[in-house]
Specification:
This protein has 106 residues and is mainly beta. The chain has one helix and five strands, in the order ββαβββ. The chain has one domain. Strands 1-2-5-3-4 form a five-stranded antiparallel beta sheet, with helices on one face. The radius of gyration is 14 Å and the shape is globular. 20% of the residues are buried.
Amino acid sequence: MAKFDYMNFGVGGYDTEFVANANKYTEEQTIILCVIENDWRFKPNYCNGKLLRMPTICDVKLRYVRWYVKAPDFCEYEGRGCYSYCKAGERGSFPVWVIEFAKLEV
């Protein structure tokens, strides 16, 4: 089983989505974790005018992730390795639940 638990994924230094291991968490648990880990995003007057509504089951999507020892160029990450999206069935891939922050903007 993957060591990955949950985290925010981002682009260019900005968090764009919350991702949780689908083998460890249900969709409902993913919503709860997302709100707990990103509580400030759901508070009025705290998120630069981009208040988010509470996610629902309809906002949770299934995707696949794997660990890349060398970060792929599309990740725009200079570190030693990273988790990133991949195709289902790709070596080392596992399912994750994804909540995109942009789709929650009020």
